[in-house]
What does this fold into?
Amino acid sequence: MIKIVLAPMEGVIDFAMREILTFDGSYSYGLTEFMRVNDHLHSKSQFTRYAPELLTNGKTQSGTPIYIQLLGQDKNWMAENAFRAWEMGALGIDLNFGCPAKTVNNHGGGAILLKEPSVVHGIVKQVRNAVPSELPVTVKMRLGFEDKTLAIENAKAIEEAGATSLAIHARTKLEGYKPPAHWDWIAKIKKQTTIPIVANGDIWSKQDAVNCIKKTSCESIMIGRGALSLPNLANTITANAKPYNWHRTCHLILQYAEYRRDQGNQNFVPNRIKQWLFYLKRQYLEAGDLFDVIKKLRDLNDITYIIKKNYL
It folds into this structure.
């Protein structure tokens, strides 16, 4: 049975999107957007802002566990924040060594840490020691920063530090999201480690999932962009479900709008919907048409009216 993890996508897969995508219960667990850890302990209110699931026993409405993802380079503050997350009821901690954003990397976080496997090891070990042994401490990494020369060394460092599992996005930071994903490298790493590996990258369909598992020999995969493009992708993989049609997907867009309608910035929800349509148009031609109609609109009511009038 394939296990599927919902990826963390900064600025895209927020709590409302997690509720929508996990609705059918197809995911083993999901990850929050990363919480940036610098030189302080985040307040409890900051944790619940990133992860409202902490107020519902660490799970979405469907019962999908949500792990708190932390990103930072100071092992002590990472550990302090991991401990607080556990105290608040987090069901798992995930550590981000994969973010390719220039701003994050320029400030010593994300994928740039893969240049120093000893630093990666220290962060993982400090966090692992800070929380109870039964709490999952998972890690997400890329194959490297500029190249793949340290990929296996980083994976071994993460394993030796005591991580529960390792998700590998099969590209370097420099490669960004350019195809192809190098699944063969995941296979190489898996052969030289014993830690459970979660394969990530270029899984857009059930056939992609089958091919990825065959190529990597992994039992678990992580999907993010594919899930945004086809909202029930996980269920098509695990249960051979029929892909949602455009009508059903429009209902999900409206559901997202209602979840986030109380957002203070009036442009926030319209911009998030437009962003989601960018991914949806890979699967639905209608998504591109809808984007062209609403791209200049800023009022959420105007956008939802157009969706209801033209597609429902």
Q: What stands out?
A: The longest helix spans residues 117-130. The first strand starts at residue 3 and ends at 6. The chain has a mean pLDDT of 95. The chain has two domains: 3-238, 246-311.
